[in-house]
Design a protein that fits this description.
Layout (H helix, E strand, L loop, with lengths): L5 E7 L3 H9 L1 H7 L3 E3 L6 E7 L4 E12 L3 E8 L6 E10 L2 E9 L7 H23 L6
Antiparallel strand pairs: 1-7, 2-3, 3-4, 4-5, 5-6, 6-7
Length: 141
């Protein structure tokens, strides 16, 4: 059975350019997503590497879409997977706030696709909540 995309949306308490900077500036991103490494240019690398007691993540990939201040896209693959997933992050202005939409596709090609779709949904919700907290000044270095 096909697994649909993971889609997470949130309104963020900052202008679109400030959100873009928080995502693409390595020093700022390190505050709210310390396990992420991102070079925000087409062909740039992206990775998320961490481990805890009973789980780990080692995902690497390549950025393939950069529209500054608006969209960032990449394909990445977890170590051991035969297939990559594709992620598209889109920012929209909403007054003095911004709307962010993260869509991750290609999960139906992965082993344990349903479980992983739930995990990825929760992961994106976690990271976007940290981004929101960072932009609101609630999460500092």
């Amino acid at each position: 059975m096909p697994v649909g995309p993971v889609i997470v949306r949130m309104v963020l308490p900052a202008a679109r350019q400030d959100v873009w900077d928080a995502i693409t500036d390595a020093e700022k991103a390190a505050v709210w997503w310390p396990d992420l490494s991102l070079v925000a240019e087409v062909g740039g690398g992206i990775s998320e590497i961490w481990s805890e007691e009973d789980s780990e993540r080692h995902a690497t990939g390549v950025v393939d879409i950069v529209i500054p201040g608006h969209s960032l896209g990449f394909a990445w693959r977890e170590r051991g997977d035969d297939y990559a997933t594709s992620v598209l992050i889109v920012l929209q202005s909403d007054g003095d706030h911004s709307r962010i939409t993260v869509t991750e596709t290609g999960l139906d090609n992965l082993e344990q696709a349903n479980r992983r779709a739930i995990d990825y949904q929760q992961g994106w919700e976690f990271h976007l909540e940290d981004l929101r907290a960072y932009l609101a000044g609630e999460l500092v270095e």
